[in-house]
Amino acid sequence: MSSSPTLSLPGGRNAALLQGAGFTAILAALLVVPLTIGNDFVTHIFITMCLMAALSTAWNLVGGFAGQMSLGHGVYYGIGAYAGVILMNMGISPWIGMFAGGLIAMVVGVVISYPCFRLKGPFYSLASIAFLEVFRVLALHFSSLTGGATGLMIPLNLGWTWMVFRERWPSLVIIFGMLLVTLAVAAAVRRSRLGFYLIATRERESAARAAGVQTVRVRLIAVAISSFLCAMLGTFHAMYLTFIEPAAMFSLTFSIQIAMFALIGGLGTVRGPLLGAVLLVPITEWARAVLGASALGLHGFVYGSVLILVVLFMPNGIIGFLSRYAGKQNAEDAAPATTQTDTIKAPAAPLVPPAPDRAGIGADIMRVEHLNKHFGGLHVTRDISFTLREGEILGLIGPNGAGKTTLFNMLSGFLSPDSGSVSLRGPDGKFHTPANPADFAALGMGRTFQIVQPFAAMTVEENIMVGAFYRHHDEKAARESARETAWRMGLGPLLNSEARGLTIGGLKRLEVARVMAMEPRVLLLDEVMAGINQTDVRRAIDLMLSIRDSGVSIIAIEHVMQAVMSLSDRVIVLASGEVIAEGDPRDVVRDPHVIEAYLGKEFADAQA
Ligand SMILES: Nc1ncnc2c1ncn2[C@@H]1O[C@H](COP(=O)(O)OP(=O)(O)OP(=O)(O)O)[C@@H](O)[C@H]1O
């Protein structure tokens, strides 16, 4: 599934306002139209629209924001329905029952999702379907509680206390209110640190982990919120239907429908699921009513046809299509500087002039001792030991396949060494040995990746915000910090551009900016100058010097020798997993072993 569009329109303020007004009008119509018409069938369709929109919005927290394509969300809806009805039969109001059902669903959601999050793509979807089936069978089996295959009727106690009414409008008011709450929760999540972390995790899990995101934790929080909301909606629907049975409450078809509204409307967007439901529910409900029994299964046909059309012509759903259209409109109106993503004008002055008063090299901040790593029979790093000092730039060079990236992965917690240790000096002055990327990040470690890992569906600003959230939990503060970092890194004019539109030089700078927004103490840069032009190399060198001068210690894997020579205080040379030379760059490049293993005779002659 292609990634969803960002919520921020690329600079299209008017278009965004227009979209907002349109959305509010649709939302208001969901309540006003049926109340004005006053027809039971029409009201029923609008109740179904609100319910489906709310369920799909809740699903979207997991399926869209977190990118976990659950096809078993009927589990939570069913749990809410049964909890509400069973408690009502015990004399407890569904207003309380819906919270009880929500809490049970939340626990079930977290327990079943924890192991399932290890599964990717279709395997996760299949596991979610399997759990749905398990719950349907359980509901059949525990018939003394659930009524088994015969199902459960609710006692017909009318009134607001019992959420059961003779007329339809009170149910409409309740589900409309629940829809508003669900939308408000989704919007709050999308704007919050959690929302950014979820989308970052969906887009590039490794990069998210490097930014200090505890990826399993954030996805579990999304499941908890989503299952709670779905269960509450399930309780409401049980009261509306007045009868429940396992096949309908734990239904695969129903679960797929919930997901489909979001897919059609716009996966991972706040407004998409509502638009999907508003478009599809009336067509199918109307066809069902008009064609009666001859239209059995027609809704599946309608959904399938619309889905095919959307995938073909609007791969990012209706919202994606509208956003792109708005973006185009805006591009025609706006000044070129705000829309061109590929041409970064070099500023007259250096982006970040190196500070004249370098603090100097301090005490050890990182200690690497006897690192060994095997991949099967391949001994990739052999007994590697070195130290990194405060305010130092350590160049790491070596031929392809020497083990540099593997070493970086061990230095940042992405790989565990077979033996040996990496310890970092914490703010308390003591050395700690972290075990995973989150612990490394907590001690001030930031890293980039050899193959750039942008969060493609986010803007430049949002990408950097993922890093900034590490220090600033509040959205406004994170945004400000991200903007400030972006200008410092020369990305200011591109703040609102989507990351996927950047050149390779821009993407490399974006990676550094995202890490710098975390305010690291140690920075691992993996070939940030590979594939960029001479001007960008010069700017990258200035950037690294200024980062160093701000007190950050850097280890840089680099093949661009011009950069290695002008930046490094010390150089380590790796070949076949071993350190073959270490010391002052000018001495190292004259070392015969280094010339033979990496630099070649031409380089030595050129230096001479
Ligand atoms: N996950 C893995 N499983 C098996 N072998 C691996 C794995 N990762 C790396 N290797 C192998 O380990 C060796 C070192 O790879 P690594 O990527 O660390 O080298 P490098 O010095 O970073 O090379 P380059 O400059 O090309 O990026 C290579 O032979 C590579 O094929």
Automatic annotation (TrEMBL):
* UniProt xrefs under PROSITE patterns: ABC_TRANSPORTER_2
Disulfide bond as UniProt keyword: no
Q: Which InterPro entries match?
A: AAA+_ATPase, ABC_AA/LPS_Transport, ABC_transp_permease, ABC_transporter-like_ATP-bd, BCA_ABC_TP_C, LivM-like, P-loop_NTPase
Name the Gene Ontology molecular function terms of this record. Answer: ATP binding; ATP hydrolysis activity; L-isoleucine transmembrane transporter activity; L-phenylalanine transmembrane transporter activity; L-valine transmembrane transporter activity
User: Entry's Gene3D superfamilies?
Assistant: P-loop containing nucleotide triphosphate hydrolases
Q: Provide the transmembrane region boundaries.
A: 16-35, 98-117, 138-163, 169-189, 218-241, 301-322
One Pfam family name is BCA_ABC_TP_C
Start and end of every ABC transporter domain?
366-601
Cellular component (GO) terms are:
plasma membrane
Q: How does it sit in the membrane?
A: Multi-pass membrane protein
Keyword list (alphabetical) reads: ATP-binding, Cell membrane, Membrane, Nucleotide-binding, Transmembrane, Transmembrane helix, Transport
Q: Where in the cell is it found?
A: Cell membrane
> Which GO annotations describe the biological process of this protein?
D-alanine transmembrane transport; L-alanine transport; L-isoleucine import across plasma membrane; L-valine import across plasma membrane
Record protein name field: Branched-chain amino acid ABC transporter ATP-binding protein/permease
Source organism: Paenirhodobacter populi
